[in-house]
Amino acid sequence: MQQLREKDESFYRRQSFWMDTVEDSLEPRPALTRRLTADVVIIGAGFTGLWTAYYLKRHAPMLEVVVLEADIAGFGASGRNGGWASAYLAGIENMVADPERREGALRLQQMMIETLPEMARVAADEGIDCHFEQSGHLAAAMVPAHLSRLKAHVRELRELGFSEADCHYLEPGELASKIQIDGALGGLFMAHCAAIQPARLVRGLARAVERQGVHLFEKSPVTGFGPGGVNTEHGSICTEHTLICTEGYSGSLPQMKRKLIPLHSMMVATRPLTAAEKRQLGLRHRTTFNNVNHLVTYGQVTADDRIAFGCRGRYFYDAAVCRTFDPHDPVFEAVRAELLSFFPFLEGIDFTHAWGGALGVSRQLEPMVCFDRDAGLGWSGGYFGDGVAASALAGRTLADLVLGRETDRTHTPWVNPKQIRRLDQGLWEPEPLRWLGVQLRANLMRWTDAAEHRDHPLAPVMQRMLRLAP
Ligand SMILES: Cc1cc2nc3c(=O)[nH]c(=O)nc-3n(C[C@H](O)[C@H](O)[C@H](O)COP(=O)(O)OP(=O)(O)OC[C@H]3O[C@@H](n4cnc5c(N)ncnc54)[C@H](O)[C@@H]3O)c2cc1C
């Protein structure tokens, strides 16, 4: 038994730099092995599930809330991500562009901005030191096409209500005074982004909800759910409300398989930078950074002065989820090379960690918070790589919906969107169409990036095709 526990502990630590460096034990909590009754059952102990549990108990302390987790709290994307708590909500541009949703989308954007201080407040109240530092985000334009995209993005952000203080364009010299990205032609500064250590947050939230009286069972994969109940491998729970908070890790639940598909993003971390290297980097705070390629990149300097950096989306046939990645997988060489293209002076630096994780993508490429009181079912996800802060607002909203609380949050366009609010609506295409579609889009992004970097005359056409791709 002792050996098994050690095996679990070292397996879970290997899943990311963040999980490797949390202070608490990663030994799993006991599994569910009996029959229980609860008011609300939450499937998945990532940010969405735990924030939902947190707000449920805050508003209704007497509620019996159970969280069931297949592995351990933070095993999914919440313990593996880039640690950007950003007020950006994926798909918000579409919501704003739609006259029916515009007003609600603008309110939703404001709520996202307010979510950052709320996360910091809860972390402080609950004694969770998740290395939260809101020093913004810098996006670097590397080629002329990026510059025009960034300027257009600043205009879009103004439409969303962002002021000059919230976000502004940076001339090359201004960008260089904040971060030394090789060859950058200019950039964008966004104030509403914090760097965090995500595993510290998700593990801290798990402890916080337990203190509130939530029952958290780990190593308890849900094998089926339906009206009135949830089954796990060795137990079951009779409940009126089941909330599915499994995002990119939903593959084991047949009802979710085509609702949210897993895209895998890959990350690496360097050894801690020396004082001289930090000076060369030019970054005085832990401002997060990326470039404006279509294939998303994201980096942060950790509290112990490493660079944690990620990029590269991967989709595996039939929405398969890769639980753990071999650090020798050749894909990590490409991630390391991408980081070194930002900071060539780091050539030869040791990398200590390499990992990947799955994020959830909906067919509409927009996140959703759904609750069907008649069916007793709710779910949230599809944050499309921007789920750290979005899941906090989503969890708070899901809790409002379950408790029947009418709040500003429950009247926003991502709540129960028309035509796709049910689990069997708005699904991804069956295979092999889904795989072909995702590969085509990923290749188009890659080709467009390559064309933009070569200033190819077809680059603007490819960029338009990407915008129009279904
Ligand atoms: C590499 C990477 C980098 C990212 N970077 C960022 C970033 O910098 N900023 C940002 O905003 N977002 C980022 N994201 C996205 C963000 O991490 C996620 O959107 C967010 O963490 C999702 O949280 P969640 O709780 O919904 O899902 P998850 O954290 O994935 O949790 C789902 C949980 O459900 C459990 N589960 C699955 N099936 C079952 C079952 N049958 N029974 C019980 N439990 C089950 C899983 O084990 C898992 O623990 C990134 C994602 C990845 C993978």
Q: What hetero molecules are bound to the protein chains?
A: flavin-adenine dinucleotide
| Integer count of domains | 3
Radius of gyration from the CA trace?
Answer: 21 Å
Q: What share of residues is helical? A: 25-40%
General form:
globular
Report the average pLDDT across residues.
Answer: 95
- Regarding quaternary structure, how should these chains be classified? single chain
Query: At CATH's second level, what is the architecture of the largest domain?
Result: 3-Layer(bba) Sandwich
Q: What is the strand tally?
A: 18
Distance between the termini: 51 Å
Tell me the number of helical segments per DSSP (H or I, 4 or more residues long).
Answer: 13
What's the CATH topology label of the largest domain? FAD/NAD(P)-binding domain
> Spans with pLDDT under 50 lasting ≥5 residues?
none
The CATH homologous superfamily of the largest domain: FAD/NAD(P)-binding domain
Bin the strand percentage.
15-25%
